[in-house]
């Protein structure tokens, strides 16, 4: 209430970009380049909820430089932090906690190959991209959180409805409202209160990353997912280690499938990337369509590191960073319409990850570049708040070709399981080069997949040894979370009673386990179960917003600057 009443000040730009990830920054750079080339200056601004650029950015990350080559062709002659080229590329099936089967290159689709790719820190790349954007005149504002979308609703007589008695309204995006700062837990103004601000824009590009709260609102409000399959997600949990030099092979890439997720018939995969300076990026990706409510992605990751394939590299090493992030992986069949009156939805906010290549950075960048070209075409014609011609550019681009080739990959795994799904994908890619005429349906949303505990096997996880495996508390310390305690809770329950009255009995309240940060707990007070939210632990991974079986939890951004502060993720 206080936020809406105080949203009085405003500022205007030609283009506003929400989110300083690879998609948003590539879009800003492309727009600025076009404006400079044609000597048509336009005001371009990027706002980012993290206190520092890159602070909330997390990815594996294996990097295909295709989009970067197009955007900044001379990047190799600069201090760009894309420098560790892939030298060794290994793929394994983990049959159990001790054994492995090496998958030879002949049994992998060619699109899985990583030659000419790089191992990077996406946090570092985004900081570098932000500098390139600023050199071109883009204004970048970290620590500014977009809270709500400014919609204008107008009645349209040119659009027909199935029900002739109902008027049709066209919604146009006019900009956003930032989140007020300096409110206490009750919503009262503190001494450091800063009111929200209206940021008006002729065009707004949304690039918040996976499960962005504004992207979610756009899709719902504008029905951008009409006739589309449900979106699907995974949760990626990652650590950065520094290991003894003799255990490090710069440029080595390791991927694995199977154990430990296979023990619960869940799907996903693990990675271990050897960066420079004896640093190792290790992580586990758990598909969020898993069925066993007792599964804990965090604890599955801790188990993974005890497998000899990982342990022999990590032993005697030191963890230096920890984080987690949702991954949008539904593919082309789940990709919403990306353009609308007044803007474009891009990158992982829409879902442009290529599941065949297990990569999303280059596709996010390309979607941002296409959005920039589409918006620029409107600007030079002096248009405002029209719908950019994004779709035509998208369908004629290599981005569309990549996503079309990979359109059945997620569905194969969801329908047939990890091993059979991987074989189906291999055959489709090898025999038909991804051009098979069929498209599989994948219509069960991730949140609807959980079995009740009466039909699930309980999973008892071993205690951490504090050498390879650790608890959530010590892990969160490595995420450098900054979150003032006295601010409104940013995790909203539509019904406060559901976690205890429904989920506890049916699913043993699964948020206790799917959250990799210990945000949600069931505690006992006066002999009564109580649901507790530790909002200050939040890594902003969005798993709760995705996996909650009643869709009762909504993630919204906390006060600007709150959250993790990643350096090498």
How would you explain this protein's 3D organization?
Helix 2 runs parallel beside helix 4. The protein is α+β, with helices and mostly antiparallel strands and 569 residues long. Strands 1, 2, 8, 9, 10, 13, 19 and 20 form an 8-stranded mixed β-sheet that branches. A 7-stranded mixed β-sheet has the order 6-5-15-16-17-14-18. A hairpin with a 2-residue loop joins strand 19 and strand 20. Helices cover 26% and strands 24% of the residues. 50% of the residues are buried. Among the domains are: 261 residues; 91 residues, no CATH class.
Brief descriptors of the model:
metal ion binding; disordered N terminus; alpha+beta; 26% helix; 24 strands; 569 residues; eight-stranded mixed β-sheet; globular; oxidoreductase
Write a short abstract of this structure.
The chain is an alpha+beta fold. Helices cover 26% and strands 24% of the residues. Among the domains are: 1-83 and 122-228 and 336-406; 447-453 and 472-555, no CATH class.
Task: Detail the topology: elements first, then pairings.
Blueprint: H1 2-6, E1 10-18, H2 22-37, E2 44-48, E3 62-63, H3 66-71, E4 84-85, E5 88-94, E6 100-102, E7 118-119, H4 122-135, E8 139-142, E9 146-155, E10 169-178, E11 181-183, E12 189-194, E13 198-206, H5 213-222, E14 233-242, E15 252-258, E16 268-274, E17 279-287, H6 297-304, H7 308-314, E18 318-328, E19 339-340, E20 343-345, H8 361-379, H9 390-395, H10 398-405, H11 409-416, H12 418-432, H13 472-477, E21 491-493, H14 498-507, H15 511-514, E22 520-525, E23 528-533, H16 543-547, E24 553-555
Parallel strand pairs: 1-2, 1-13, 2-8, 5-15, 13-20
Antiparallel strand pairs: 3-7, 4-7, 5-6, 9-10, 10-13, 11-12, 14-17, 14-18, 15-16, 16-17, 19-20, 21-24, 22-23
Helix pairs in contact: 2-4, 2-8, 11-12
